[in-house]
Amino acid sequence: MVSGIERKKKKPHGRNPKEVPKPHKSFKKGRKDGSEKEDSKDLPSSLLIQDDDPDFPRGGVSLLSRDEVAEARAEGEAEFEREERQVGRKGKKDRRIRKPETQEDLGSLFAEGITGKLPRFANRITLKNVKPSMKFWGVVVEVNPKDLVISLPGGLKGFVHAEEISDVPIETEKDTETGIFGRVAHVCQLLPCVVVKVEEDKKDAKGSKRIWLSLKLSLVHKGLSLDAIQEGMVLSAQVKSVEDHGYILHFGPSAFSGFMPRKEDDGNIKTGQLLQCAVKSVDRSRSIVHLIANPELISKSFTKDIKGLSIDHLIPGMMVNARVTSILENGMMLSFLTYFTGTVDIFHLPSNFPTGQWKDEYSQNKKVVARILFIDPSTRAVGLTLNTELVLNKLPSINVKVGDIYDESRVVRVDKGGGLLIEIPSSPTPSPAYINISEISDEQVSKLEKKFKENSLLRVRILGFRYLEGVAIGTSKASAFEDSVFTHSDVKPGMKVNAKVVVVDSFGAIVQFSSGVKALCPLPHMSELEIVKPPKKFQVGAQLSFRVLGCKSKRITVTYKKTLVKSKLDTLASYADATEGLVTHGWISKIEKHGCFVKFYNGVQGFAPRSELDLQPGIEAGSVYHVGQVVKCRIISYKPASKRMNISFVISPKRTPKGDIANVGTVVSAVVEHITPTAVIVNVNSSFKGAIYNEQLADYKDQASAFRDVLKPGYKFDQLIVIDIEGNSLILSAKHSFIHFASEIPSDISGIHSGSVVHGYISNIIETGCFVRFFGNLTGFCPKPIATDEQLEDLTDAFYTGQSVRSHVLNANAESGRIKLSLKQSLCSSSDVSFIRGYFLTEEEIATLQNSKGDQDWVKSFSIGSLVEAKVDTTREFGVVVSFKDHSNIVGFIANHQFGGKKLEEGSSVESVVLDVSRSDGLVDLSCKPELVRAASSAQKKKRRRNTTSDLELHQEVNAVVEIVKQNYLVVSIPGYSYTIGYACTMDYNLQKQPHKSYSPGQSVNAVVGALPSTDASKRLLLLLKALSDKSRDSSSKRAKKSNYKVGSVVEGEIVEIKPLELIVRLGAGLQGRVHITEVLEKSEDFVENPFGKYRIGQVLHAQIVAKADRAGKGGKANILELSVRPSLLKGEGEEIMPPASDFNFSIGDIVRGYVMKVDSEWARLTISRSVTAHIFILDTSSEPNKLENFQNLFKVGQAVNGQIISINNDKRSLRVKPLPPSTELTKISQVRKDDTNINGSDNLKKGDIVGGRIKKFLPGVGGVLVQVGPHLYGRVHYTELVDDWVPEPLTGFHEGQLVKTKILDISRSSEGTVHVDLSLRGSLLSNKPDFGM
């Protein structure tokens, strides 16, 4: 339409066109056929603007010269004035109808373009006109684990989800409060962003909108090409990877990348971090942009005008030279970069306090420096800022805080119908603030200009900030100065507040204070009772009273529990506020067996031990209290430094006179009163009540359960020991180990000595260890690594709560009250027979209770070692059952191995020896062995039946023979002492749940006499097996020998585990060895598919140590030696053992053998030796697509693979190999000539090869297809090499990611080092060449 415009100057009617220069919508169309084509000849196609893009005043592009633009504007003005005169004056009614259009201009980004009406207002960003694809310059105001909060122009706020944070994969930071967001950006950082979605805010009852943003540079830099990048240009970049010499940077488009060299003052730059950089140089041949992160240079770098610059190339934050083209009512219009126009809002002028006469400071064509604030590609609207600090790439400073009150704030400007600009007398410099008309008064204000004058004073309270404008948001409402809670900083834990319910959901309710601050009332705090859904009282709009639980950051939680809200007791919101004796309210957060955890305000927590829960003996805390229950409690002790506090539910403790109650560690008698599911309640001395918890009834777990089952009210315990006192109740134990060693068990840390072994019981087991309780509350901790001699993943496999244990004291710190223990059997083995003595005594008590009304005298007829007559009743698989003439209700049993060569038939009589008697089962174990019968008969004749042990002495070592193997003990005979019968325990206190050595009848064992029948309460000969007591010495010996294990020495070990790639061999306690799969066969041997096939768990083998011990296992606690079982090494004929660093001696073309370690979608990882790995790429395995698709099924972990080396990575000690056919024998493989490998640095490829490939992408137009033929090597299939015959659409049937068979037509290398590969997919060229893949 340019041709229709006369080239002569016309004098416009009315106003001077220079005052409001305005490009016309139709200017671009006139040059479409002529000059536009001529001007765009030399532009790259990627930079050309589409012809049908409309031209708008907020960034529209004109291809006219400046003189032509000025002339056209003058013509447009004249035409506009003529139209105005023709239309004439409108009536008042019409003007009133048109008034809303003026108001609409304020909120519009002129999406309709220019239709003859000149703009009166600068673009103003509001929620109404924000839409997807808009680009903004924003500042990060909050970084939290859930999202990133960004302040936008106009005081708006946007949020960034994790999926929109980056194009570059980023590792999640688990140990930081900011998570993944903290790696990308930091608070106060200026950065560009893109709107991806605007939706209704579900959390806001007012139905406001929430803006979702993206920081992905692929969106921010959409349309940016390498041709548009120039030296000195400032760009946002994201760190893709951190290298030794610098950082690889990502800009969004994949066509080019950036590099920034490393500097000493870079700080801790991480992968994913967003940086602002200046372009130092552009290597267009390699598509690499070299950058520098110099803040001073960045703040001074202008964006230069280049040919073909489009609106897609504009990025928020760019600094440009501009000139004023017109003055608008609330800002200015500027032109910049020749073709673009944009507006500046009044809040973005250089002055912080623009008065009502601000327009006088600006004239047409005045040159200014500006930065781009926002861009709307759909309307071509561009917003700019002249703010002095933003122009210098700095965030405007604000010297006030939210909630501050300033009594004498000066009115700088009155905006009719808008609000007031205020000067706040802050320090060190005054700060600007703006009060919207709705925040000026609690009553409606109609005419601001009449009520307020410039320089008048106001009382102002700060509500918030418009960070990019550097302006505070204020209010002068009277109600704003009265609220106790105005901002988050005003909220204090424990304070009472009134709030309105705005949202009710399954998780709780969101409430709002009158000031607008919101808080969460969690579901458990919506009622005193345990509830599963919100109560009916919580209705949206309801006004309720709450009490603040805590306020961390801006997250406020409140409670509606009536007891807490109405409580008149002092609140506890800090450990520093705790005082002994303070009575306050809290709520139970957790209930455990040993007590309750109680929470108070602001995260303060205390613990109430069971003795302070005001419970009756034997009553569980969970049956009286529930989680969430409000309780009144009293502080009994506290340690603010360690944030520990003990509390009591007993507010007024009863005083008990001294001497009336038994002390901890004393032995008492008691009578059973009643039995609860968890404890036996007893009366002690008819004065106090006590409780014996189930696990405290016996040292053996099974016996404790059996004992409880037979107990009845009225039964008297002759001996119980007080292990703790809870209030006025005694906690008792019937364990014989505690009663026997009462004088040695401490109740105070002063009684603990390093190196001693002390009896106690397991009170709790956690993941990192277990707690051992002694008398009273004295407790020690045993870390997991030193709890057992063999490392276990779960300590519950070795111990149970309540188990009797012997603990070795490593150290005791009286100041901290901490005791460190070890429960290793090698340090804590029993030195006496107390364990088995307790077993037999408890058995006697259980038997007495079971047969309280029956005949108890039968036992006297079956003394141990005596001869008895029996009759064979029935024959069983494992022996014979016999009966006794005088005791028909007693059963005897003779095991097969106790026949002594006799043939026992049913109905026959037999003379046998009593080996064992079980009173509770009514069972007698017998033996017919001639040697035992003769010894018993001889003793009986000499009337020495009861004196057969007179020749034995305590602590004497004897040789014994196993006669019977019971579940918990052995019945043995001692041949050297007239075959005297004895009893030995097969386990120990600490080994009750752990595997222990197995025994068989007839086996010889060494034992030590621990108790004689004549002096022991059990009336039995008790022995201590040397196997248990010697374990400590053996372990110490083995530890001493560990240091003697040297590389090259041959050791003996037992196989304890067979893994796909290694054997685990146990060499000693805490010492293990590992035989790698490559250390089984000789290198000269034929390949064996499963080298571990001949080995079994439990097998003993000899191996040579080939590497020093390494710390391995979970937590690095286990000692691992690298072993080898290669025959040549064991014979001493093998090669010298080389350190791992020197065994990496490979050449390209070598043939290697390996075993598969791992397989994923593209790679198979092999182990070649202990320290060398190899990789097989999917495309190296075959040229047939069907085989490539089945890649993951070609390999399995542990599979043997032969391969030829095609590349070597010395730094990572890794090889890349090409698999050889499974049928190829090793002898033939070794004869493969390296000349035939065709390795030329191009992934082992040469011209004419037929290989497997994967379609990466389709090239534009008739460019063909890009096909991947190696991990980092790609080739091009020309359009004419897709099919043999001519077809209209050769690409039909192909898709990205498709696996194909292709032929290499040519391989060449450029002078710059890049490899160019030409490929073909034509079927006629893909002959049936043998496939040497897997």
UniProtKB/TrEMBL annotation:
It holds the Pfam family S1. InterPro entries: NA-bd_OB-fold, OB_Rrp5, Rrp5, Rrp5_OB_4th, Rrp5_S1, S1_domain. It comes from Rhynchospora pubera. PROSITE patterns: S1. Residues 133-216, 232-294, 317-387, 403-477, 494-561, 581-650, 665-735, 755-824, 865-929, 1048-1126, 1149-1220, 1248-1322 form the S1 motif domain. This is S1 motif domain-containing protein. Residues 1-100 are annotated as: Disordered. SUPFAM superfamilies: Nucleic acid-binding proteins. GO terms for cellular component: small-subunit processome. GO terms for molecular function: RNA binding. Residues 88-98 have a biased composition (Basic residues). GO terms for biological process: rRNA processing. It comes from the Eukaryota. Residues 32-42, 65-76 have a biased composition (Basic and acidic residues).
